[in-house]
Amino acid sequence: MAGYAFARLRFPGRNLLFYTILSTLMLPFPVVMIAEYVLMVNIGWVNTYQGVIFPSLTSALRVFLMRQYFTTIPEELEEAAKIDGLSTFQIFYRIVIPLAKPAMAATAIFSFIGVWNSFLWPLLVPQSLHMFTVPLAINFFKGAKGTQIYWNQMTAAEVMAMVPTLIIYAIFERYFTQGIALTGIKR
Amino acid sequence: MTVSVIHVVKYYRNIKALDDVTLEISDRELFVLLGPSGCGKTTLLRIVSGLVEPDSGSVMIDGREVNGVPPAERNVAMVFQNYALYPHMTVFENIALNMKIRGIRKEIIEERVKRVAQTLQIVELLDKRPGQLSGGQAQRVALARAMVRDPKVYLMDEPLSNLDAKLRVEARAEIKRMKEMIDVPIIYVTHDQVETMSLADRVAIMNRGKVLQEGAPIELYDRPADVFVATFLGNPPMNIIPADHIKLPKNIEVPGPLAKQGTFSIGIRPSKINLGWEGSVRTEITVEFAEVLGDNVLIHGKLGSIPLVISTSDRGKVIGERTLQIIFEPESIYWFDEQGKARYELAKDMSQR
Fold first, then answer.
1. Digits of tens for pLDDT over chain B (353 positions)?
2. Beta bridge partners of residue B49, listed in sequence order
3. Nearest-CA distance from B154 to chain A in Å?
4. Helix, strand, coil share (%) of chain B residues, nearest 5
5. Chain B residues touching A81 at Cβ < 8 A
6. Which class is domain B3-227?
7. Does B131 contact A181 at a Cβ distance shorter than 8 Å?
């Protein structure tokens, strides 16, 4: 939704805001990690699910990806919808969202892989075992002091960890090919 | 139902896209806005549609001022250059969307879509998606989407420019037929002068945000106001020759004001130039190349440094020639001032042309 706002709605400071968000992409995560952790401590979200989940709910990368896709949807479609009497919000969910499925599928897969494989942040915030992500669990196959590595169990666990990603990809895959075939505009 | 555009001005940044445009379009009229790209014709169409608001001036539809009224409430229908069909909906849904949004009952929607589909012969396409349609079919669907709403005015933005030459002729006939069925004005934007001559009841020729001339197309063809209009209508375009590049016979009559100024240009349509020696105005051109178009041959030549086009059906006489003797009659000369801003007529044939 933020991506759509940046692509089509005109409001003062739009470009400034967009580039500000974009510039956060240029900061490596370890740089902001400590500030974010302090924030979590202050609002008491350390060792909670929301503490693990919330920071990944939005991301500059996804806003950027969606915006880039929205700008490729021909403006005439939205104008035609305006003439057909649709409100801005109706245009968004009746015209734009259905057309953005491929981009949303791609973004969903990226997000899923990113979150599924995240290591550093879940290493900091949760302290109980049941909140740990898979890569953290895999990390346990190293012996307590890092002296002994159980290679066989570790690789087996890695293969298991891949399965959900593959399933997610299989679900969203059809949208990729569909997206290209759907263009109803003649150029 | 009428549409009036009154003293409309529109700026894009610092560029004046529309410069005090006033037009009156009446019932059952197909009104063409003709001009080169960037002349403001599409902007004007969008201002009538409500997608763009003018900086000053007003738009009236059916006697009501519609400035500030959103497009949907103006009850206009627009056919876009690329049709702008919603790709994720079937043809039926495309046509029905407007009525669905307005909350019209399902049975009524179905009946009206069917009726329009029958008129435009697209019934068997209703379940398809836009991606599966050919160009001509998509164009008919776009027309159907416009027609089903019973709008107060149709706005068409170069609706035929995406079709190939053969389909375009068919689609022109389609639009003519459609026009017979409706009794509201159609405003039609194009840069194609053939479309204009074939479809328009009236036409306004625009350039740089200004309307240069309006009237019936044949009137503009016969009596262009200036060089721009003269060279825009007619294919190949009218030849414009500065008077000092051609020797006019001593006894030829030049319109008074031009004769006083001494410098002026003459215009002559390619089809009014003949081959031969026996004529009032005689000269010789060098041939650069010829286009054989079937019955007609277009000779591209030069008169001194001035390019000149002749259209002739006399194939045998011209092919292979390096120079040609040409003649034309003073009656077919158009007289323009030096800048090409105004056309003058001989006092005596004011009534004829």
1. 788 999 999 998 888 889 999 999 988 899 999 999 888 899 999 999 999 999 999 999 988 899 989 888 888 999 988 888 888 889 999 999 988 888 889 999 999 999 989 888 899 999 998 888 888 889 889 999 999 988 999 999 998 888 888 888 888 888 888 888 888 999 999 998 889 998 999 999 999 999 999 999 999 999 999 999 999 998 889 999 988 888 887 777 788 777 777 788 889 999 998 888 777 888 888 999 889 888 888 999 998 889 999 998 887 777 777 888 888 888 888 989 888 788 888 765 554 44
2. none
3. 12
4. 35, 30, 35
5. 86, 97
6. alpha beta
7. yes
Which residues in A lie closer than 8 A to residue B130 (C-beta atoms)? 184
Residue A186 lies in a domain: no
Whether residue A125 lies inside any domain: the answer is yes
| Token pair belonging to A154 | 């570790």
List the beta bridge partners of residue B59.
B5
For CATH 2.40.50.140, the residue range(s) in chain B are 238-349
For residue B26, give how far its alpha carbon lies from the nearest alpha carbon of chain A (Å).
Answer: 22
Chain A hits for B71, Cβ within 8 Å: 82-83, 85
Residues of chain B with CATH 3.40.50.300: 3-227
- Cross-chain residue pair A85–B102, CB shorter than 8 Å: yes
Residue with tokens 């003459």: B266
Could you write out the DSSP letters of every residue in B247-274? ---TT----HHHHHH--EEEEE-GGG-E
Domain count, chain A: 1
